[in-house]
Write a structure and sequence with these properties.
Blueprint: H1 3-18, E1 24-35, E2 38-50, E3 55-59, H2 66-74, E4 81-86, E5 91-93, H3 105-115, H4 120-133, H5 149-162, E6 167-171, H6 179-196, E7 199-204, H7 207-213, E8 216-220, E9 227-232, H8 244-263
Parallel strand pairs: 3-7, 3-8, 5-6, 6-7
Antiparallel strand pairs: 1-2, 1-4, 8-9
């Protein structure tokens, strides 16, 4: 992708961001599920805004309701109480790449473009531009089994970006990858976020990953999930996961997280 094309894409996202106050607004949201023993409260009175172009990580212990909240924002489920508003339909990226193995990398991206109504004669060019954005140029015709785990997640990221959403929801997308590949994809994600201006709500239980990526870290308490605390991350990008300021803030957040887990009696 040429620098002019990247600039055009970033300008498009920026112009759209100027027209809205929030990429996502979550107001007093609660969620309960029916169980044999009655209703189980998973999320309790959560209010959270994501600004246009902001990168927010949602952090908490396993089972605190992070993925449930992300599914609510994505519109895959409805809250039991409260309201959620987003700037258009969000794009969702899962821990598993969820690519169709019978399609090539390019055709997986084209499927998202087709569902958006992009004309057939435009899809291949756009798919190749998105593959170039995630640094997979030349991979259009490769099948899923020919791609490494990291490459598959890059294709999944390109497919999410193909939805042309102003809000990208990411549910632990790098958790299954080895440390080196994960670190490389951290670099790629922050680069793509900076180039496109898309808003990101990123779920993780890895404290250092949360600090490495985000402008703001939001900690959920253990079940029921509530917003326990927030941190602004003023460490300049690019960051490394081993950088001293990242480690220092991660230690502070970890201590608060441990306190939340102890307070709720979970081990």
């Amino acid at each position: 992708m040429s620098s002019q094309e990247v600039t055009t894409m970033a300008t498009t996202f920026a112009e759209a961001a100027e027209t809205v106050e929030h990429a996502a607004r979550i107001e007093h949201v609660s969620k309960s599920f029916a169980t044999p023993g009655g209703q189980q409260l998973v999320l309790d009175d959560i209010s959270l805004d994501v600004a246009p172009g902001e990168f927010v990580t949602l952090l908490g212990a396993s089972g605190c309701g992070k993925s449930t909240l992300l599914n609510l924002v994505a519109g895959l489920d409805r809250p039991s109480a409260g309201s959620i508003a987003t700037d258009g339909r969000p794009a969702l990226m899962f821990q598993e790449h969820a690519l169709f193995p019978w399609l090539t990398a390019g055709k997986n991206i084209e499927l998202a473009l087709r569902l958006r109504g992009v004309a057939k004669n435009e899809r291949r060019e756009r798919a190749e531009r998105l593959l170039e954005l995630v640094r997979l140029q030349g991979s259009y015709g490769k099948r899923v089994h020919e791609l490494s785990g990291g490459m598959r997640q890059r294709v999944a990221m390109a497919r999410a970006l193909a939805q042309d959403s102003q809000l990208l929801l990411m549910d632990e997308p790098f958790a299954a990858l080895d440390a080196i590949t994960r670190d490389l994809l951290h670099d790629e994600l922050t680069r793509i976020w900076a180039e496109t201006g898309v808003s990101v709500l990123f779920v993780t239980h890895n404290v250092r990953e949360a600090v490495r990526l985000a402008q703001r870290v939001v900690l959920l308490s253990s079940r029921p999930g509530r917003v326990a605390r927030e941190w602004r991350v003023d460490i300049p990008q690019p960051r490394r996961i081993e950088d001293a300021p990242v480690a220092e803030l991660s230690l502070e957040i970890t201590e608060v997280l441990r306190g939340e887990i102890r307070r709720h009696g979970q081990h």
